[in-house]
Amino acid sequence: MSMKKTDLVKNLAKKIDGQMKSAGVPGRFGQGSAAAVDKREQRRLDAEAGLVPFACKLPTVLVKQLQDRAAGHEGGLNALVAALLQRGLS
After folding, report:
1. How far apart are CA 90 and CA 55, in angstroms?
2. What is the residue range of 11's domain?
3. For 15-47, how does the pLDDT look when each residue is reduced to its tens digit (9 = 90+)?
């Protein structure tokens, strides 16, 4: 006796579900994730370094320019903005 198409699909779904449950845990959820610092710890580290969060609204064009320059900057976006502000205020 042959199976109905819906029964075949259900069996395939069960097979895929079993394969997913038996698969290993990816590295990003395993031991590698322990290396990431949580938000509270990152805030503590920033405070020890004398950094203060500063939010402002900028035009999209200016943000794109900052992101493009920050890609080549050694300190990233935060260091670039700090340097530009320092130069502008001097």
Report:
1. 21
2. 5-89
3. 999 888 887 766 666 665 556 678 898 889 889
* Nearest residue to 50 via CA among 84, 82, 4: 82
Alpha-carbon gap, residue 75 to 77, rounded angstroms: 7
Q: Are 10 and 18 within 8 A, CB to CB?
A: no
Number of domains in the chain: 1
* Residue linked to tokens 């959820």: 29
Q: How far apart are CA 61 and CA 37, in angstroms?
A: 32
Check: CB of residue 73 under 8 Å from CB of residue 79: yes
With a threshold of 0.90, does the pTM exceed it?
no
